[in-house]
Write a structure and sequence with these properties.
With about 120 residues, this protein is an all-alpha fold. It has four helices and no strands. Among the domains are: about 1-35; about 85-124, no CATH class. It starts with a helix and ends with a helix.
């Protein structure tokens, strides 16, 4: 019984989708060219190529913007990683400097390493 109910629901959804799709197709077919300012100026034989060119330009623009956004996001992630690394190094440098002031001889070597790593920007 539940299977029949599901089939009935799915057939109703398909009918609704079909009617919506056919309405959209009728609206597209009944499109008044006089309401489109750029296409109205072109002769009928040049309208289709103009629409194709416009779609290709918009597709290329979309791809370009997506690539630019991806690159920008990658750069921001890299900058965040570098800033976090430098923050960790500055904290290590501060801790080691306190140890060196207290007279810990091992802290002087670590202080030198931390200083070099901070100036290079790497954690080693």
């Amino acid at each position: 019984m539940a299977l029949n109910t599901e089939m009935l629901r799915s057939s109703r959804l398909l009918e609704q989708f079909g009617s919506i799709f056919s309405d959209l197709m009728e609206r597209g077919a009944a499109l008044d060219i006089e309401r489109l300012p750029l296409l109205r100026r072109l002769p009928a034989e040049r309208r289709y190529p103009a629409v194709v060119v416009a779609l290709l330009v918009s597709l290329l623009l979309t791809i370009g913007l997506a690539l630019w956004h991806t690159q920008k996001t990658a750069n921001q992630a890299q900058w965040l990683e570098i800033a976090t690394r430098l923050q960790m190094l500055s904290q290590r440098y501060s801790k080691t400097a306190q140890q060196a002031v207290l007279g810990n001889p091992a802290a002087f070597a670590t202080l030198e390493q931390s200083s070099k790593a901070f100036s290079e920007g790497s954690p080693n």
